[in-house]
Amino acid sequence: MSSAPSPEIPLDAGAGPKHNPHVSVVVPIYNEADGLLDLHARLSDVMEGSGLSYEIVYINDGSSDNSGKLLRGIHAESPHVKFLDLLRNSGQVAALSAGFAHIAGDIIVTMDGDGQMEPEDIPLLVREIEEGSDVVSGWRTSRRDSWFGRALPSMFANYMIRKLSGVPMHDYGCSLKAYRRELVDALKFDEYRAFNQAVLISLAGKWAEIPVRHYPRPHGKSKWNLFKLFQFNLDNLVSLSVYSFQWMAIAGAVLALIGLLLAPAFFFLAHKRSLIGLAASLNLALSLVGVSTLGILVALSGEFVVRIYHMVDKRPKWILREILEPRSGL
Ligand code: UDP
Ligand code: MG
């Protein structure tokens, strides 16, 4: 493989003054070779037709199929494409984080590279930001994913994030979103700070949502499974953590109160020979609830400790193998 150009020296260095594009569209790619050329054709048609100045930032997240090679070809032919090649597969969130660390635009749009979203919806999101919103979320009013594997867990996740963030948005999981640059810059994304859309949304002064189209995956299959979804939502829980600990504290206090109130009842039941079994089972059930609550609290604290350790240890969430700047001079 040819040696990587320095991130500091764009390939078009010397081609004239650089102007920042108005919009950066960030698209993470992991094994999407089958639909990539089609996706790029649709996306660039929309961006060209919109009259906006733009860059498309493709992040190859360690694909093991032909995606990396195809993206290189796309970069060579399309002057508005920035190409980030990650060292290994690091996950959708890490790939987006890498993209956010390398954006040039005033408005940042995120979109999946799997052909499930409609690029034509992008200018609508951009307009909302131009009109004053800090975040605009797509809202998949008719979502075309499997019910049990994706839509149902998403309903729980949306409910939890709505409660934790205090922002009553419908579709936190929709990857088609737009952000104002000032909001993104406030979090200073780099290889140690993972992108988290719930946190960005919770910091926004003004947000909006727009119904967007959603299609079944034309190629390949979803890279998410129930465990990855659990990890993702644990990240949301921890990232919006002040509230989660407060809720845990309330749950602990309520359990303690119930235990205290029930103690005399257990005592009474245990002294009635025929009810000893009932008293013991109730006691056991309550103790199990108490111990589990404690277990969750310990796990949550552990998650914090590990995060702090990784931060102190300066362990990157993604590593860049190579970056190819847009050739447009934008
Ligand atoms: N993706 C990625 N790294 C991964 C998994 C996924 O960059 O480890 C990309 C994937 O190529 C797609 C987007 O993230 O562009 C969304 O992935 P997917 O379609 O699997 O998620 P879903 O639509 O099921 O939420
Ligand atoms: Mg998808």
Which key terms come to mind for this protein?
single chain, 330 residues, alpha/beta, Spore Coat Polysaccharide Biosynthesis Protein SpsA, Chain A, 2 domains, eight-stranded mixed β-sheet, 8 strands, disordered N terminus, binds uridine-5'-diphosphate, binds magnesium ion
Topology:
Blueprint: E1 23-29, H1 33-50, E2 54-60, H2 67-77, E3 81-86, H3 92-100, E4 107-110, H4 122-130, E5 135-140, H5 147-165, E6 177-180, H6 181-187, H7 197-203, E7 207-212, H8 226-239, H9 241-271, H10 276-312, E8 320-324
Parallel strand pairs: 1-2, 1-4, 2-3, 5-7
Antiparallel strand pairs: 3-8, 4-6, 5-6
Question: What would you note in describing this structure?
Answer:
By secondary structure, this protein is α/β, with parallel strands linked by helices. The chain folds into 2 domains: 23-223 and 316-324, Spore Coat Polysaccharide Biosynthesis Protein SpsA, Chain A (Alpha-Beta Complex), CATH 3.90.550; 241-313. Helix content is 49%, strand content 14%. The protein is built from 10 helices and 8 strands. The chain has helices spanning 33-50, 67-77, 92-100, 122-130, 147-165, 181-187, 197-203, 226-239, 241-271, 276-312; strands spanning 23-29, 54-60, 81-86, 107-110, 135-140, 177-180, 207-212, 320-324. An 8-stranded mixed beta sheet has the order 7-5-6-4-1-2-3-8, with helices on both faces. Helix 1 (33-50) links the parallel strand 1 and strand 2. Helix 5 runs parallel beside helix 8 and helix 8 (226-239) crosses helix 9. The protein is elongated, with a radius of gyration of 24 Å. Residues 1-16 have low confidence and may be disordered. The site of uridine-5'-diphosphate has 17 residues, from strand 1 and helix 3. Uridine-5'-diphosphate (UDP) binds at residues 28-30, 32, 61, 89, 91-92, 95, 112-114, 116, 150, 222-224.
